[in-house]
Amino acid sequence: MTKTAATPTGELTTMAVVAGETIVLDPRGAMFVPEHDLLAVSDLHLEKGSSLARRGMLVPPYDTAATLARLAAIIAQYRPRIVVSLGDSFHDGGGSARLPDAYRSDLSGLMAGRDWFWVAGNHDPEPPEGVAGHTVREIAVGSLVFRHEPSPKPVPGEVAGHLHPCARIVQRGRSVRRRCFASDGSRVILPAFGAYTGSLNVLDRAYRGLFEWERFFAYMLGNDRTFPIARSLLRPG
Questions:
Q1: What are the pLDDT digits (tens) for 199-214?
Q2: Against a cut of 0.90, is the pTM above it?
Q3: 177 in Cβ contact with 167 (< 8 Å)
Q4: Euclidean distance between the first and final Cα of the chain, in Å?
Q5: Cα–Cα distances in Å, from 27 out to 1, 38, 103, 160?
Q6: Which residues, other chains included, contact 74 with Cβ-Cβ below 8 Å and sequence gap of 6+?
Q7: How far apart are CA 15 and CA 89, in angstroms?
Q8: Angle subtended at Cα 223 by Cα 217 and Cα 226, rounded to the nearest 5 degrees
Q9: Strands 31-33 and 38-41
Q10: Euclidean distance between CA atoms 62 and 199, whole angstroms
């Protein structure tokens, strides 16, 4: 079930139900669970720019600043009691140690007064160095289970990341490709939140077996709202 409601400020918010839990699908790529006052984001890939630079691939070193700024805005809006970062929060095992002091301070400010959980990912399987919070393999809250990689078979209530989902549609001859939440009402996969992250079309074979496609929606991220798109309208690429 999907519905759109207006916030007190007049903004449109897309909500869905996953395993009986009502979730808010924010167009910036974060998921909020009002019942548990919980905010989830996935695949921040902090310090990806510095990781690439160490390998001779020079890119502007502003990804961490941009990602933390977007995260700060979302936290300021929802004021969650719990934050779950669904793995690959840092681009590699040394990413947390490379955090400049200013960014480390910004991150500490976001974490203050909250229960913050780092879910171990394939890029960052160990606890981040010099950063507060709890590192877990997975965590269950209500009927939801938060982990990094989606299980190969359907798991009711699973909230995962890792695959960086996106969707593509064609309207009036114009192709639109956007990051998205992927859900069939039983589980949900979050889009990558990091500034330097890519995406993988939900029609790719990596998603086979994960969803009941007759109930599937790709919740595409728009500029100011999230748009539920049925499987029949999706295109590869």
A1: 999 999 999 999 999 9
A2: yes
A3: yes
A4: 27
A5: 18, 17, 24, 17
A6: 26, 28, 30, 39, 41
A7: 25
A8: 20
A9: antiparallel
A10: 19
- DSSP code of residue 149: S
Residues 114 and 82: beta-carbon distance below 8 Å: yes
**CA separation, residue 6 to residues 56, 93, 175, 189 (Å):** 47, 41, 28, 24
- Give the residue from 86, 94, 89 showing the smallest Cα distance to 44: 89
CB neighbours (10 Å) of residue 152?
A: 9
Domain carrying residue 171: 2-233
pLDDT in tens, 101-130: 999 999 999 999 999 999 999 999 999 999
The residue written with tokens 């029609």 in the block is: 203
Average pLDDT score over the chain: 92
Cβ–Cβ under 8 Å, residues 54 and 10: no
C-alpha–C-alpha distance, residues 190 and 10, integer Å: 25
Q: How many independent structural domains does the chain possess? A: 1
- Find the helix packing angle between 63-78 and 101-111, rounded to 10°: 20
Question: Is-contact 200 189, C-beta < 8 A?
Answer: no
- CATH label of the domain that carries residue 13: 3.60.21
